[in-house]
Design goal:
By secondary structure, the chain is α/β, with parallel strands linked by helices. It is 40% helix and 13% strand. Helix 17 runs antiparallel to helix 18. InterPro entries: SBP.
Length: 435
């Protein structure tokens, strides 16, 4: 259990109060209610990452003037968006606080669903890679809670066996060739038909100097750029992996968690994945893996799409938004400030592997004790030098259109896939085709 999570008895009591509140409010689904004390209750919708830590933060940030109750969102980012969008489109006044995947901030802000945040929500202390995700129309509409990125995780013994020098940048082609040269070695990615597959595609395209779409301020009239040399370079990488012996057996349905076991199975793997991986494997020591196994874990910057060009690691994380229809917007803004304090960010990093959005949190002695210094430096570098997904009010449409053409990965062809996806995405944005 997380050291910052509330005691089990206390957490059960809070959830019992929430259940009682639901019964009391059954006659008015969209009406906010207070707890037994008469204090306002702020509902905070959580994505299912670091939930125990977030429950503890909700407990800590509750005050004599309001309580914070937590509600769990679905697992996938797209499903999270759908549930929140439905509530906000219905002007649900119980959507006080919400965890938002950064790519949905622009859409929600553009729709008028988020309260504007104070100008000082972002400071020089905020890492720029995540700060950019909460800006829309020259205003700030969310507060960064944690900043995610992907790095290349690998078995040191596998790299040595394959003869791959990991002391400098490596390319996707080199990684795939190295894994293919060792029987049963794999390359772990996320290629199911869901948001993380677009994360991979976007990083590959940006790593080749291109973009899926540009001039995003033009909305539906934005420039679709995926049919380019960069788009073809991205498709080449996917085609190479899908056709190699290093591809996961479940490549077309692979997700963040499905490739984790392969790291310590047989010779191991090279795997692009988020920051949580280190704490995940550390927690297995003494059970599924040994200290020697854990010491064999290596990390490096996200692979380059094109040799000689810097990679663009994915940038993700979670931003906290305040619902525009909340009955208590001032209290919710105050709660958001507490939720995103340095103390909260440090707890998420140490206990859940979800890394900070601020420099000061990275400098915490607790982080220095929990993580190797070079890994912390790699995380920060990857966030600040990484590539965000398109910041568009139509991002959900863009993502779905890309998924529909690029999936499955076994069907990707550099000669046809970028051109086909550009045509389909343009037609969808113009209203000439349906998803």
């Amino acid at each position: 259990m997380s050291s910052s999570a509330p005691p089990p008895r206390r957490r059960r009591r809070r959830r019992s109060l929430a259940a009682a509140t639901v019964l009391t409010c059954a006659a008015g689904l969209l009406t906010a209610c207070g707890g037994d004390s008469g204090k306002p209750v702020l509902t905070w919708y959580l994505n299912p990452d670091g939930v125990e830590v977030l429950d503890g933060i909700a407990e800590r940030c509750s005050t004599d003037r309001y309580d914070i109750e937590t509600e769990l969102l679905p697992t996938g980012a797209t499903d999270q968006r759908v549930q929140l969008a439905r509530r906000l489109a219905a002007e649900d006044d119980t959507a006080d606080l919400m965890n938002l995947d950064p790519v949905f901030v622009a859409e929600f802000a553009n729709a008028g669903w988020l309260e504007e945040m104070p100008a000082d929500t972002l400071t020089d202390d905020t890492l720029e890679g995540i700060a950019e995700t909460v800006r829309w129309d020259d205003k700030v509409y969310a507060a960064p809670l944690w900043a995610n990125t992907q790095v290349l995780w690998y078995r040191k013994s596998l790299a040595e066996q394959a003869g791959l020098d990991m002391s400098g940048p490596v390319t996707w082609e080199q990684v795939i060739d190295a894994a293919s040269s060792v029987p049963d070695a794999k390359v772990g990615v996320q290629a199911d038909r869901y948001e993380a597959y677009v994360v991979w595609i976007n990083a590959l395209i940006q790593g080749a100097g291109g973009d899926i779409i540009s001039d995003v301020e033009a909305g539906k009239d934005a420039s679709v750029d995926i049919d380019s040399d960069a788009g073809r370079a991205a498709a080449t990488v996917i085609q190479q992996l899908a056709g190699s012996s290093a591809a996961q057996g479940d490549l077309s349905v692979s997700r963040e968690g499905t490739s984790l076991p392969a790291m310590y199975s047989g010779p191991g793997e090279f795997m692009t994945n988020w920051t949580f991986v280190y704490q995940n494997y550390k927690g297995l020591v003494g059970g599924d893996i040994t200290e020697e196994d854990f010491a064999d874990l290596g990390w490096a910057r996200y692979p380059a799409t094109v040799e000689g060009e810097e990679s663009k690691p994915p940038v993700g994380g979670i931003d906290i938004g305040v619902g525009a229809f909340s009955k208590h917007p001032d209290l919710a803004l105050e709660a958001a400030q507490c939720i995103t304090e340095t103390e909260s960010q440090v707890r998420l990093a140490v206990d859940a592997g979800l890394m900070p959005a601020t420099q000061s949190a990275y400098e915490s002695p607790e982080l220095a004790e929990a993580y190797p210094a070079d890994l912390l430096a790699l995380f920060q570098e990857s966030v600040d030098q990484g590539g965000p997904r398109p910041k568009s009010a139509y991002y959900a449409t863009i993502s779905s259109a890309i998924q529909s053409v690029w999936h499955s990965p076994e069907s990707v062809d550099p000669d046809t896939t970028p051109k086909e996806s550009a045509k389909f995405l343009s037609e969808v944005l113009e209203g000439k085709a349906l998803l």
